[in-house]
Amino acid sequence: MTVSRALNNPKVVRPATIARVMDAVKITGYIPNMLAGGLATRRTKLIAVVVPQINNNMFVDTVQAIGDALALRGYHMLLCIVGYEPEDETDIVATLLSRRPDGIVLTGIHHTSELKRIILNANIPVVEIWDLTPTPVDMLIGFSHEKVGNAVGEYFLDKGFTRFGFICASDRRAVVRKNGAIAVLRGRPEHEIEELMVSRPANMEVGRSALRQMMAGDKRFDAIICSSDTLAQGVIMEAEAQGLRVPQDVSVMGFADLNFAAHNRPAITTVSVDKWGIGIRAAGMLADKIEGKAVGEPVVDIGYSLVIRESA
Protein backbone atom coordinates (compact mmCIF):
# COMPACT_ATOMS: atom_id res chain seq x y z
CA MET A 1 0.00 0.00 0.00
CA THR A 2 2.82 2.38 0.88
CA VAL A 3 4.60 1.63 -2.40
CA SER A 4 1.38 2.31 -4.31
CA ARG A 5 0.95 5.67 -2.61
CA ALA A 6 4.60 6.60 -3.19
CA LEU A 7 4.27 5.93 -6.92
CA ASN A 8 0.78 7.23 -7.54
CA ASN A 9 0.24 9.94 -4.90
CA PRO A 10 3.67 10.95 -3.55
CA LYS A 11 2.35 14.09 -1.86
CA VAL A 12 0.98 11.98 1.00
CA VAL A 13 4.23 10.05 1.56
CA ARG A 14 7.31 11.19 3.47
CA PRO A 15 10.32 12.05 1.24
CA ALA A 16 12.52 9.48 2.96
CA THR A 17 9.98 6.75 2.20
CA ILE A 18 9.70 7.85 -1.43
CA ALA A 19 13.48 7.68 -1.74
CA ARG A 20 13.50 4.09 -0.42
CA VAL A 21 10.74 3.09 -2.83
CA MET A 22 12.52 4.66 -5.81
CA ASP A 23 15.74 2.88 -4.87
CA ALA A 24 13.86 -0.42 -4.96
CA VAL A 25 12.29 0.51 -8.32
CA LYS A 26 15.72 1.20 -9.79
CA ILE A 27 17.24 -2.02 -8.45
CA THR A 28 14.42 -4.26 -9.68
CA GLY A 29 13.71 -2.48 -12.96
CA TYR A 30 10.04 -2.26 -11.99
CA ILE A 31 7.81 -0.27 -14.39
CA PRO A 32 4.55 1.14 -12.91
CA ASN A 33 1.53 0.08 -14.94
CA MET A 34 -0.16 3.38 -15.73
CA LEU A 35 -2.89 1.70 -17.77
CA ALA A 36 -3.79 -1.16 -15.45
CA GLY A 37 -7.01 0.36 -14.23
CA GLY A 38 -8.45 0.67 -17.71
CA LEU A 39 -7.40 -2.59 -19.30
CA ALA A 40 -9.63 -5.61 -19.61
CA THR A 41 -6.80 -7.71 -21.05
CA ARG A 42 -3.01 -7.49 -21.13
CA ARG A 43 -3.02 -6.54 -24.83
CA THR A 44 -2.75 -2.86 -25.76
CA LYS A 45 -2.20 -3.29 -29.54
CA LEU A 46 0.49 -0.65 -29.12
CA ILE A 47 4.07 -1.00 -30.43
CA ALA A 48 6.74 1.46 -29.27
CA VAL A 49 9.29 2.42 -31.93
CA VAL A 50 12.44 4.16 -30.73
CA VAL A 51 14.73 5.99 -33.18
CA PRO A 52 17.51 8.53 -32.57
CA GLN A 53 16.23 11.18 -35.00
CA ILE A 54 13.97 11.88 -37.96
CA ASN A 55 15.28 15.33 -38.90
CA ASN A 56 16.99 13.75 -41.88
CA ASN A 57 15.75 10.94 -44.11
CA MET A 58 17.98 8.19 -42.68
CA PHE A 59 15.25 6.50 -40.60
CA VAL A 60 12.10 7.87 -42.25
CA ASP A 61 11.46 4.99 -44.66
CA THR A 62 12.02 2.41 -41.93
CA VAL A 63 9.62 4.16 -39.54
CA GLN A 64 6.97 4.51 -42.25
CA ALA A 65 7.31 0.84 -43.20
CA ILE A 66 6.94 -0.25 -39.58
CA GLY A 67 3.82 1.86 -39.16
CA ASP A 68 2.21 0.60 -42.37
CA ALA A 69 3.01 -3.05 -41.66
CA LEU A 70 1.77 -2.85 -38.08
CA ALA A 71 -1.48 -1.21 -39.17
CA LEU A 72 -2.18 -4.17 -41.46
CA ARG A 73 -1.83 -6.46 -38.43
CA GLY A 74 -4.12 -4.32 -36.26
CA TYR A 75 -1.42 -2.59 -34.18
CA HIS A 76 -0.71 1.07 -33.54
CA MET A 77 2.76 2.63 -33.51
CA LEU A 78 3.99 4.95 -30.78
CA LEU A 79 7.05 6.77 -32.17
CA CYS A 80 9.68 8.15 -29.83
CA ILE A 81 12.77 10.21 -30.68
CA VAL A 82 15.55 9.63 -28.15
CA GLY A 83 18.70 11.19 -29.64
CA TYR A 84 22.06 9.46 -29.44
CA GLU A 85 22.80 9.45 -25.69
CA PRO A 86 22.30 5.99 -24.11
CA GLU A 87 21.12 7.48 -20.80
CA ASP A 88 18.37 9.46 -22.57
CA GLU A 89 17.25 6.29 -24.34
CA THR A 90 17.03 4.50 -20.99
CA ASP A 91 14.86 7.19 -19.39
CA ILE A 92 12.51 7.53 -22.34
CA VAL A 93 12.10 3.80 -22.93
CA ALA A 94 11.27 3.31 -19.24
CA THR A 95 8.50 5.90 -19.66
CA LEU A 96 7.26 4.17 -22.81
CA LEU A 97 7.12 0.81 -21.08
CA SER A 98 4.90 2.28 -18.37
CA ARG A 99 2.24 2.41 -21.10
CA ARG A 100 2.56 -1.36 -21.45
CA PRO A 101 3.17 -1.71 -25.20
CA ASP A 102 2.87 -5.20 -26.65
CA GLY A 103 6.34 -4.90 -28.20
CA ILE A 104 9.17 -2.48 -28.83
CA VAL A 105 11.57 -1.62 -31.66
CA LEU A 106 14.98 -0.27 -30.64
CA THR A 107 17.53 1.31 -32.98
CA GLY A 108 21.00 -0.16 -32.62
CA ILE A 109 22.45 -2.73 -30.27
CA HIS A 110 24.31 -0.61 -27.73
CA HIS A 111 22.14 0.06 -24.69
CA THR A 112 22.83 0.70 -21.03
CA SER A 113 22.76 -2.25 -18.65
CA GLU A 114 19.86 -0.56 -16.85
CA LEU A 115 17.82 -0.44 -20.06
CA LYS A 116 18.50 -4.11 -20.75
CA ARG A 117 17.34 -4.98 -17.22
CA ILE A 118 14.18 -2.91 -17.65
CA ILE A 119 13.37 -4.56 -20.99
CA LEU A 120 13.93 -8.06 -19.66
CA ASN A 121 11.73 -7.27 -16.68
CA ALA A 122 8.98 -6.01 -19.01
CA ASN A 123 8.96 -9.45 -20.68
CA ILE A 124 7.75 -8.24 -24.09
CA PRO A 125 9.06 -8.96 -27.61
CA VAL A 126 11.87 -6.66 -28.77
CA VAL A 127 13.40 -6.11 -32.21
CA GLU A 128 16.65 -4.20 -32.59
CA ILE A 129 17.24 -2.64 -36.03
CA TRP A 130 19.99 -0.96 -38.06
CA ASP A 131 22.86 -2.96 -36.58
CA LEU A 132 24.09 -6.53 -36.32
CA THR A 133 25.17 -8.85 -33.51
CA PRO A 134 24.81 -12.59 -32.89
CA THR A 135 23.53 -11.84 -29.36
CA PRO A 136 20.56 -9.44 -29.55
CA VAL A 137 18.31 -8.64 -26.62
CA ASP A 138 15.59 -10.68 -28.36
CA MET A 139 15.31 -10.35 -32.16
CA LEU A 140 17.27 -8.28 -34.66
CA ILE A 141 17.27 -7.18 -38.29
CA GLY A 142 20.11 -5.06 -39.61
CA PHE A 143 23.53 -5.05 -41.23
CA SER A 144 27.21 -4.79 -40.34
CA HIS A 145 28.44 -1.19 -40.30
CA GLU A 146 32.01 -2.45 -40.08
CA LYS A 147 31.59 -4.45 -43.29
CA VAL A 148 30.05 -1.41 -44.99
CA GLY A 149 33.15 0.57 -44.08
CA ASN A 150 35.43 -2.22 -45.29
CA ALA A 151 33.61 -2.28 -48.63
CA VAL A 152 33.98 1.49 -49.04
CA GLY A 153 37.70 1.26 -48.32
CA GLU A 154 38.16 -1.60 -50.78
CA TYR A 155 36.29 0.35 -53.46
CA PHE A 156 38.83 3.16 -53.27
CA LEU A 157 41.91 0.93 -53.03
CA ASP A 158 42.09 0.33 -56.77
CA LYS A 159 41.55 3.96 -57.81
CA GLY A 160 45.10 5.07 -57.21
CA PHE A 161 44.04 7.78 -54.76
CA THR A 162 46.33 8.68 -51.89
CA ARG A 163 44.61 11.57 -50.08
CA PHE A 164 41.38 10.80 -48.22
CA GLY A 165 39.14 12.95 -46.07
CA PHE A 166 36.42 11.52 -43.80
CA ILE A 167 33.51 13.69 -42.68
CA CYS A 168 31.63 11.75 -40.02
CA ALA A 169 28.66 12.51 -37.81
CA SER A 170 29.24 11.86 -34.12
CA ASP A 171 27.17 8.72 -33.71
CA ARG A 172 28.40 5.22 -32.95
CA ARG A 173 27.30 3.52 -36.17
CA ALA A 174 28.82 6.20 -38.41
CA VAL A 175 32.11 5.96 -36.52
CA VAL A 176 32.17 2.17 -36.98
CA ARG A 177 31.75 2.61 -40.75
CA LYS A 178 34.49 5.24 -40.85
CA ASN A 179 36.91 3.07 -38.89
CA GLY A 180 36.13 0.10 -41.11
CA ALA A 181 37.07 2.07 -44.24
CA ILE A 182 40.20 3.55 -42.66
CA ALA A 183 41.36 0.10 -41.52
CA VAL A 184 41.38 -1.02 -45.16
CA LEU A 185 42.99 2.14 -46.55
CA ARG A 186 45.78 2.15 -43.96
CA GLY A 187 46.99 -1.10 -45.50
CA ARG A 188 48.94 1.12 -47.88
CA PRO A 189 51.47 3.41 -46.16
CA GLU A 190 51.28 6.07 -48.89
CA HIS A 191 47.68 6.90 -48.02
CA GLU A 192 47.10 10.23 -46.26
CA ILE A 193 43.93 10.24 -44.16
CA GLU A 194 42.27 13.12 -42.35
CA GLU A 195 39.13 12.84 -40.21
CA LEU A 196 36.60 15.45 -39.14
CA MET A 197 33.75 14.73 -36.73
CA VAL A 198 30.72 16.98 -37.19
CA SER A 199 27.76 17.86 -35.03
CA ARG A 200 24.22 16.58 -35.47
CA PRO A 201 22.01 16.98 -37.35
CA ALA A 202 24.39 16.25 -40.20
CA ASN A 203 22.68 18.39 -42.86
CA MET A 204 23.87 20.06 -46.06
CA GLU A 205 25.02 23.18 -44.25
CA VAL A 206 27.20 21.05 -41.97
CA GLY A 207 28.63 19.26 -45.01
CA ARG A 208 29.56 22.55 -46.68
CA SER A 209 31.12 23.92 -43.51
CA ALA A 210 33.05 20.69 -42.94
CA LEU A 211 34.63 20.78 -46.39
CA ARG A 212 35.66 24.42 -45.93
CA GLN A 213 37.30 23.44 -42.65
CA MET A 214 39.10 20.43 -44.12
CA MET A 215 40.42 22.37 -47.10
CA ALA A 216 41.70 25.32 -45.08
CA GLY A 217 45.30 26.11 -45.94
CA ASP A 218 44.88 24.90 -49.53
CA LYS A 219 44.67 21.23 -48.58
CA ARG A 220 43.51 18.96 -51.36
CA PHE A 221 41.93 15.51 -51.32
CA ASP A 222 41.37 12.82 -53.91
CA ALA A 223 38.20 11.63 -52.18
CA ILE A 224 35.87 12.80 -49.43
CA ILE A 225 33.93 9.99 -47.74
CA CYS A 226 30.85 11.12 -45.80
CA SER A 227 28.76 9.31 -43.21
CA SER A 228 25.51 10.30 -44.96
CA ASP A 229 24.21 11.35 -48.36
CA THR A 230 23.07 14.65 -46.85
CA LEU A 231 26.64 15.50 -45.83
CA ALA A 232 27.86 14.37 -49.26
CA GLN A 233 25.38 16.67 -50.96
CA GLY A 234 26.69 19.61 -48.93
CA VAL A 235 30.29 18.65 -49.74
CA ILE A 236 29.51 18.56 -53.47
CA MET A 237 27.88 21.98 -53.31
CA GLU A 238 30.84 23.48 -51.45
CA ALA A 239 33.40 21.83 -53.73
CA GLU A 240 31.72 23.34 -56.77
CA ALA A 241 31.50 26.72 -55.01
CA GLN A 242 35.29 26.55 -54.62
CA GLY A 243 35.77 25.81 -58.31
CA LEU A 244 36.39 22.08 -57.93
CA ARG A 245 34.84 19.53 -60.26
CA VAL A 246 33.23 16.38 -58.87
CA PRO A 247 34.52 13.76 -59.55
CA GLN A 248 37.34 15.06 -61.78
CA ASP A 249 39.07 17.03 -59.00
CA VAL A 250 37.64 15.28 -55.95
CA SER A 251 35.42 12.22 -55.56
CA VAL A 252 32.61 12.25 -53.00
CA MET A 253 30.82 9.30 -51.42
CA GLY A 254 27.82 9.17 -49.09
CA PHE A 255 25.79 6.58 -47.23
CA ALA A 256 22.17 5.34 -47.16
CA ASP A 257 21.06 6.01 -50.77
CA LEU A 258 18.48 8.59 -49.73
CA ASN A 259 15.78 9.50 -52.22
CA PHE A 260 17.65 12.50 -53.65
CA ALA A 261 21.01 10.77 -54.13
CA ALA A 262 20.29 9.42 -57.61
CA HIS A 263 18.84 12.78 -58.75
CA ASN A 264 21.61 15.02 -57.45
CA ARG A 265 23.99 16.45 -60.05
CA PRO A 266 26.37 14.76 -60.04
CA ALA A 267 24.47 11.71 -58.79
CA ILE A 268 25.90 10.54 -55.46
CA THR A 269 27.86 7.32 -55.13
CA THR A 270 26.65 5.74 -51.90
CA VAL A 271 25.84 2.59 -49.96
CA SER A 272 22.27 1.34 -50.24
CA VAL A 273 20.46 -0.37 -47.38
CA ASP A 274 16.92 -1.73 -47.70
CA LYS A 275 15.45 0.75 -45.22
CA TRP A 276 11.88 -0.17 -46.13
CA GLY A 277 12.62 -3.89 -45.87
CA ILE A 278 14.05 -3.47 -42.38
CA GLY A 279 10.79 -1.89 -41.25
CA ILE A 280 8.56 -4.51 -42.86
CA ARG A 281 10.56 -7.40 -41.43
CA ALA A 282 10.80 -5.83 -37.95
CA ALA A 283 7.05 -5.28 -37.77
CA GLY A 284 6.34 -8.81 -38.94
CA MET A 285 8.73 -10.40 -36.44
CA LEU A 286 7.18 -8.46 -33.57
CA ALA A 287 3.59 -9.17 -34.55
CA ASP A 288 4.30 -12.87 -35.05
CA LYS A 289 5.92 -13.23 -31.64
CA ILE A 290 3.17 -11.27 -29.88
CA GLU A 291 0.58 -13.55 -31.47
CA GLY A 292 2.44 -16.72 -30.52
CA LYS A 293 3.61 -17.57 -34.03
CA ALA A 294 7.05 -19.01 -34.74
CA VAL A 295 9.74 -16.54 -35.79
CA GLY A 296 11.91 -18.32 -38.33
CA GLU A 297 15.10 -16.28 -38.00
CA PRO A 298 15.53 -14.20 -34.84
CA VAL A 299 18.67 -12.55 -36.32
CA VAL A 300 18.46 -11.30 -39.92
CA ASP A 301 21.38 -9.75 -41.82
CA ILE A 302 19.65 -7.71 -44.51
CA GLY A 303 22.95 -6.74 -46.13
CA TYR A 304 23.90 -3.68 -48.19
CA SER A 305 25.15 -2.78 -51.67
CA LEU A 306 27.50 -0.20 -53.14
CA VAL A 307 25.73 2.07 -55.62
CA ILE A 308 28.29 3.51 -58.01
CA ARG A 309 27.20 6.81 -59.58
CA GLU A 310 28.85 9.93 -60.94
CA SER A 311 30.32 11.50 -57.78
CA ALA A 312 32.93 8.76 -57.21
UniProtKB/TrEMBL annotation:
<keyword id="KW-0238">DNA-binding</keyword>
<dbReference type="GO" id="GO:0003677">
    <property type="term" value="F:DNA binding"/>
</dbReference>
<protein>
    <submittedName>
        <fullName>LacI family DNA-binding transcriptional regulator</fullName>
    </submittedName>
</protein>
<dbReference type="InterPro" id="IPR028082">
    <property type="entry name" value="Peripla_BP_I"/>
</dbReference>
<dbReference type="Pfam" id="PF00356">
    <property type="entry name" value="LacI"/>
</dbReference>
<dbReference type="InterPro" id="IPR000843">
    <property type="entry name" value="HTH_LacI"/>
</dbReference>
<dbReference type="InterPro" id="IPR010982">
    <property type="entry name" value="Lambda_DNA-bd_dom_sf"/>
</dbReference>
<dbReference type="Pfam" id="PF13377">
    <property type="entry name" value="Peripla_BP_3"/>
</dbReference>
<keyword id="KW-0805">Transcription regulation</keyword>
<keyword id="KW-0804">Transcription</keyword>
<feature type="domain" description="HTH lacI-type">
    <location>
        <begin position="1"/>
        <end position="41"/>
    </location>
</feature>
<dbReference type="InterPro" id="IPR046335">
    <property type="entry name" value="LacI/GalR-like_sensor"/>
</dbReference>
